[in-house]
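Complex record, two chains
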Amino acid sequence: MSGYRLASGGFVDRSSPLGFVFNETPFTGFSGDTLASALIASGVDTIARSLKYHRPRGIVAAGVEEPNAYVRLVKPHDEPNVLATTLPLIEGLEAASQNCWPTVDFDLGATADTLHALLPAGFFYKTFMSPPAGWPWYARMIRRAAGVGKAPRRTANIKVERRYAHCDVLVVGAGPAGLMAALTASGAGIRVALVDCEQKAGGALRNWRASIDGDDAQRWVDRAIHELDANERVMRLPSTTINGYHDHGFLTGIERDPFRRERLWKIRARHVILATGAFERPLLFPGNDTPGVMLLSAVQTYAHRYGVAAGRRVVIITNHSGAYRSACDLRDAGVHVAAVIDLRGEVSGRLFDDVAMRGIEVIPGQTILAVHGRLRATAITVAPLAQLSARRTIDCDLVAMAGGRQPTLHLHSQSGGDIEHDESLDCFVPGKAAQKSMTAGSVNGHDDLTMCLREGVEAGNAIVKALGGTHRDMAIPHCLFAGPLDLLSVGELPNPRDDRIFVDFQSDVTTVDIRLGHREGYSSIEHAKRYTTAGMGIDQGKTASTNTAFVLAAANRASPAAIGLSNMRPPFAPLAFGAIAGREIGELVRPTRATPITMWHVANGAVMFESGANWRRPGYYPRTHETMTAAVRRECLAVREAVGIYDSSPLGKIEVQGPDAAVFLDRIYASRISGLAIGRGRYALMLREDGRLFDDGVVFRISSDRYWLTTTTGNTDAIIAWLEFHLQCVWPLRAFITVVSAQWANVVICGPRARELMSIAGTSVPLDRGDFPFMSVRTGVIGGLEARVFRVSFTGELSYEINVRASEGLLLWERLIRCGSSLGLIPIGSEANHVLRIEKGYISIGHEVDGMTTPFDLGLARFVAMDKADFIGKRSLHSDLLGDAPRRELVGLLTDDPSIVLPEGAQIIDTSSAHACGFVTSAVASPALGRSIALALIAGGRARLSSQLWVTLAKGETLARVVEPGFIDPNGERVRA
Amino acid sequence: MHYSLFTLARNALTGHRHWPRAWASPPLASAYDVVVIGGGGHGLATAYYLARNHDPGQIAVIEKGWIGGGNTGRNTAVVRSNYLRDVSIRFQDAALRLWPDVSRELNFNVMMSPRGQMEIVQTWAKLRDARRRMHAMRLEGVDYRLVAPDEVYRRIPILNRDPNMRLPVLGGAWQGRAGIVRHDAVAWGFARAADALGVHIIQNCEVTGIVRDGTRVTGVRTTQGDIQVKKIAVAVAGHASHLAAMAGLRLPIETVPLQAFVSEPLKPVLDCVVTAPALGIYLSQSDKGELVVGGGPDGYGSYAQRGSWHVIEDIVTSLVELFPTLGRVKLMRQWAGVIDLAYDTSPIVSKADVDGLYFSTGWGSGGFKAIPIAGREFADLIATNRPSDLIAPFSLDRFSSARLVVETAGASNRM
């Protein structure tokens, strides 16, 4: 019980206490607290257990870089791995430690720690290999031990949405540099977006008693925010974490209103200023993972933001002068700082005097050899670096480490920017930018407020200049210069007792692990990361990455510059899947497309089927108590004997026009298009370069330079892309593509009585087969509606495809339904359509066409104009013609037992060789023939006509006879009727 | 040093200070009999099997970065053999049969976990595809089973149970022997085993040129110096066409980004590998507890190992739709590789038209699972100059003779 609430200070509202529960114990915090600050103020020390060894872990940092304080949120909703240091406290909040049992203070999992000698980095690569089938068993054990939080059982009631923004310059970070940059740029009339992950602006200025222009820095921040908010060209996004810096100035971020709403922001910025600040580097001394060892910046942050002392007796260990200023600052805030251990030698001067004046002991040239205490530091052993045996114990309950800067380079790195190592600052700093971005402030590695402000102005002015504005002379606010850091470069500190020194607190990676990996050849930083798992935890190594590189560099006897940092991948901080998905789930995951007639189908009991490209269409229209089989049979017979009506509106419809339209289509299609008379159409095949069928459809010539194409519904988007690609990138022809799929409702009436129906409905298009023959198009009026009518057929019956304006589709449908009642007209669905086309032997993309079939395989040679100068796929068809092995050809199959409907995909076995020779592409029970029929692709199929083959069934096999692939009306008299 | 629990315990006594290097780091020699370009799983496995099964002389694997840093370290580590074409099924299943023995073969635990793969069927078209694949696989003696929704839900308890789901669960297709493997370990394990057989593994060595003497290759230029060679085996992803161009060849290959991401580590919540083709997503849970999620490639050519955000957004949307309770689980890390897609989406394991030059490339999004078998058969081809029956269908001449092996069936109008 070490932390406590200071008598005053902080931005918390002490008049507004909030009750919360942690590990089933009730506590009280204040409005303005984070869960972490409230826990520290309540004296909670151990908050988590580490991943591998289950060692007790306390809070180390005060922000997003925190490696340990991932807790399970229980209320208001269930969520694993929530970061306590960024979670605002609310009344009734409940949270718990993870990865421990039975409690975080007494965790049986910690037995792993006693076995740690057997569990070095990568131990699992070296063992668990026998018995041969043993791994799955070991894997189960390892899986149970691995993982941190538990996936929630229920969904959370959090509003999620996606928002978009555009700006001239996006400033990431509203600390001193970011604010100055935003002020400079916005003052020049530039559209600025200023984003900060915290609700309140100011960044690191809020973590210590800073003063700007002789005034409290917070007041300067407030004035800056006031000015920015008054400027309508500035968009400020507080509580928003930029997570990804993608190509072309595209950034993604998440705005959090915890427990209520998360917004995914997608921002396109012409320029980006990264004022992302820096983290503090932990130091590598024995016992550095004990609860009660914290970053010095975090101790300051808890004191200044939340009025919380993280310990009653603080000892600081540092390698630079900045820590002296922090020591004074902490003491002035009311935190008892006992000593500053300085790894450097002699110290004197003003800083020393300031510290000494406050009664803080300075211990130069010494290091920490041990941290005592298990669940909380109680004392430390220190010794001079020059004489490690001269030990001394100091009582303290908090060790504050200040190991120098660790700039937040994530976004710079994600954007493709280089990372360099700065010798004098001894840290990794941004190198050359890859996009239109620059960095300003302490992200550049320094620790000087004046420089932060100046770099902000310079960055702002650079943008002003780049956008053609006038340079703004901004006064740099006056602040006290803290003096140089005089930082001593240190890596792993002396460790005479060979204790473990932790580099990655969350993943339990020690300096020994990194050296072991190096010894075994995992010397590249990326190998080290993967082999030891350093930086692979939920925190993605924000406090570990620099130290990993430094330890590896020392092992390699190389400079950190030669080692570098491992790749920083998005996101900067984890973000919820739900927030990324937004509202585009449920019925919006793949929004369905409805035809103008869909409502009618649903109202009339149709069972709706998915039909490609997110269209839904009627599968069949069952009557009361009618099975699917019976309904489909009824619908099929209606088409064969009377007339059916089918909503074919989802069909892909494309108009191609222009002087070169015919030339273009001649190259696109294997069939000849250019010879078509106006008003006539043709079944046409589209091939890929390899001569394989891509799509089939009809092409009609509407007028001299205007053509109408239909495509397979599910293929439409691919075909549009295909046409556009060839037009824009391959052949610069004068032809234009317009997609009109949704502009036309397409109603098909098919069956021997279709003409009678047309006549009853009343039409101006000729009905005589001589005036309006098969494969032609007429425009006219039908049922009082303007229409374009095609005589094409997919069922093998006399058919009219009537296209009207989409807005009149339902009207047409209802009129035709009314007119057809005396003719036995019924609506038919896609299932009946499927049966009817198989009876006719027509192919369908996805059944007979599977990416390997050529037109010749399908018996469609008459639709391939090999004498055309060229078309896509022609050359490949030539090589096919030269091939000698028999190709799979489309044939019909009739089972010996007419009641057996073959499974689609069933393999066909050659009776003589017992080898597979093909497969069933489509099979149905045909109502018209009163037996099962099938289409199949069989090697040398046409040569096998009338022979018998075996077909495999789910169980056993059956005999079938090879026949022509058309089961009704082989001469096509009905379609031409 | 042999890896075992015993040696682990013995080394624990000495603070793990005496483990030898997993693979040596010899200087680049001036001549090799065989140079394998590409230190990923494929290149290292090829070198290993060449050294183990043949006698080709001195072998080097040269890698421009660190071994396993390309697609071997970027893929989602799924192994399975549910393919459509007979030649693909035979080849991929031979790989799947090898995987369980790889750890002991290499004395390096690659953590092959045959947890099974469930393909969730959500449209009638996909059901037909799955059924056709099942029949085709059964004919090759490969297990693949269509299962009812009950079994799908039993094996994937966190799957969306809303009966009004936009794309309802119609059933599933199950392959029990499929699973996941620790991807980095595959590169490291093959590297260590190849090194033990005398293969030189040279990292940070980029190829800058291939030297030809008329119809045969004679040398490789690298950033570490020039090498004389008898044979060159190219086993790279992303830059195969680039390397082919150095030898004056063109490959029928397009290079596109493929992305993946992982969630924060969770306690076990998903046992099998799940694919949902109708929503364009696949995932599994790693032994570490992260959900490893992938989808289709980005739709444009690129050599940058970065993808577009909208693709991630699309995959995540599918993820939350399928598993609504994962809505508050977080995306932790996202990355991309670049994949080489041959025209017919099948791999190219072949001699080139230049003597002494061989390619194992065009693995698309499915190269990882084939590593052991591809390495073995490719090594065989390099040593004997004759493709085995397993890889003969994947030779380069299939593009001129139009004997393509198309694995992506055409779209359907009746889903």
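Note: The first strand of chain A starts at residue 4 and ends at 5.
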